[in-house]
Specification:
One of its GO terms (molecular function) is beta-glucosidase activity. This is Glycoside hydrolase family 1 protein. The chain has 469 residues and is an alpha/beta fold. The protein has 14 helices and 14 strands. The strands form four sheets. The protein has an eight-stranded parallel barrel with strand order 1-2-3-4-5-7-9-12, surrounded by five helices. A hairpin with a 2-residue loop joins strand 10 and strand 11.
């Protein structure tokens, strides 16, 4: 224990994504997104069109139940709620000249409910739900034209909601592009035919689009705070051998370059070396370089696991660590093989603060686990002590990082209400404080039930973290 507590203005809440909670995939003028043809999530192949076994098509029906769900968030005491706007609700194909008013009106209603309950919105502009047409007609972010489509989309959001939303994130886990080119970058070229040239050009286009949105936001919303969002995974050397330490440095570089550009406004030397050694010549215009200079106000990130690295060629990657790396023999793992490392969250908070000197926001962190609905004193609930222990231990490390001097704006637990997993497209991989009665086969009433962790997190928020043990 330390004498340091959470700041009085610390933002407490939860996080979701439109494609994992909304459902109503064909209502309100919405077009198809890349998620609508990923019935097996990141781990499986895409399909030509939506299929009945894709849980995301209905998800947990937030589209019709948002008022009920936001009321539950208010009961938890949320001061912030992170959600994404589905690009294909606003521009169904992605390349239209005018937005879809029905889609805009839906998010007006969501913001109405948040305002009614005094909950600050934290909006992700693009969260793995690029319109499918942009993938099929343009090959996604490999095509420079997507910068203009994204700029138009962002400008519409800023003009419509700018007086109501202070915190914005440009892209979710933008560095996941190199690991999930279709889901993250709408790149339709099959992964086995995708060249490094195409992949890194797509990366450049996304980074320019992110910086351009930041520039537009500052023009239209001078009081707003614009952040980037990266997937954080601290990496440790498997042994003290210098070669393993060097392998960690290279792995960190590959992961951190996206943040480096969005915070510092230019490509770092180590990345330019990578391009040279791979024979890649990016199409970077003078306008691109000027745009990249529009850097973010804060850095947000997801944190679920750490990894190890080794220079030894006989070391096999661990299956559970979604961004590669080797399993850590000192750590336990979740039911889905993700290694559990609360101290890694303190490490990455310090690493990002030392590296970038920008305020930080933990916008995803949580435990995916199989939950069993039981009845206690006549009330259905889930006795999710494992989730409580996981979140408690991670939040203690956030508190320690604050004691270290790190500027942390807030914490939004991932999947505050059960949702469809992005990696596996399962609902049985549950994260929430709120149980949703729906199974992987699509059956269930969609009724909501408070888990044991619901009361625990409400107390954490009420005491501003003082109840953590």
């Amino acid at each position: 224990m330390t004498g340091t507590t959470f700041p009085p203005d610390f933002l407490w809440g939860g996080a979701t994504a439109a494609n994992q909670i909304e459902g109503a995939y064909a209502e309100g003028g919405k077009g198809l997104s890349v998620q609508d043809v990923l019935p097996h999530g990141l781990t499986g192949p895409r399909t030509p069109s939506p299929t009945p076994d894709n849980l995301k098509l209905e998800a947990i029906d937030f589209y019709h139940r948002y008022a009920q769900d936001i009321a539950l968030f208010a009961e938890l005491g949320f001061t912030v709620f992170r959600f994404s706007i589905a690009w294909s609700r606003i521009f169904p194909a992605g390349d239209e000249a005018e937005p879809n008013e029905e889609g805009l009106a839906f998010y007006d209603r969501v913001l109405d409910e948040l305002e009614k309950h005094g909950i600050e919105p934290l909006v992700t502009i693009s969260h793995y739900e690029t319109p499918l047409h942009l993938a099929e007609a343009y090959d996604g972010w490999t095509n420079r034209r997507l910068i203009g489509f994204y700029e138009r989309y962002a400008r519409v959001l800023f003009e419509r909601y700018g007086s109501r939303v202070r915190y914005w994130l440009t892209f979710n886990e933008i560095n996941s592009l190199v690991h999930a080119p279709f889901m993250s970058g709408a790149i339709n070229t099959p992964a086995d035919r995708l060249t490094d040239q195409q992949l890194y050009q797509a990366m450049h286009h996304e980074l320019v689009a992110s910086a351009s949105a930041t520039r537009i936001a500052r023009e239209l919303m001078p009081d707003a705070r614009i952040g980037c969002m990266v997937l954080a995974m601290p990496t440790y050397p498997l042994t003290p051998a210098p070669a393993d330490v060097l392998a960690v440095m290279k792995a960190d570089h590959a992961n951190l370059v996206f943040g480096d550009v969005q915070v510092r406004g230019a490509y770092p030397g180590y990345f330019l070396r990578t391009l040279r050694e791979r024979g890649i010549e990016l199409d970077i215009t003078d306008d691109d370089r000027a745009t990249l200079a529009h850097t973010v106000d804060f850095v947000s990130f997801s944190y679920y696991m750490s990894a190890c690295e080794s220079a030894s060629p006989d070391r096999a990657p661990g299956a559970g660590n979604i961004m590669g790396g080797l399993p850590n023999p000192t750590l336990e793992q979740s039911q889905w093989g993700w290694q559990i490392d609360p101290v890694g969250l303190r490490i990455v908070l310090n690493q990002f603060w030392d590296r970038w000197g920008k305020p930080l926001f933990v916008v995803e962190n949580g435990l995916g686990a199989r939950d069993e609905l039981v009845v206690v004193d006549g009330v259905p609930t889930v006795l999710d002590d494992d989730r409580i222990a996981y979140l408690n231990d991670h939040l203690v490390q956030v508190r320690e990082a604050i004691a270290d001097g790190v500027d942390v704006l807030g914490y939004t637990s991932w999947g505050c209400i059960d949702l469809v997993s992005a990696s596996t497209a399962q609902l049985s991989k549950r994260y929430g404080f709120i149980y949703v009665d729906r199974d992987d086969d699509g059956s269930g009433t969609l009724q909501r039930h408070r888990k044991k962790s619901f009361g625990w997190y409400a107390e954490v928020i009420r005491t501003n973290g003082a109840s953590l043990r």
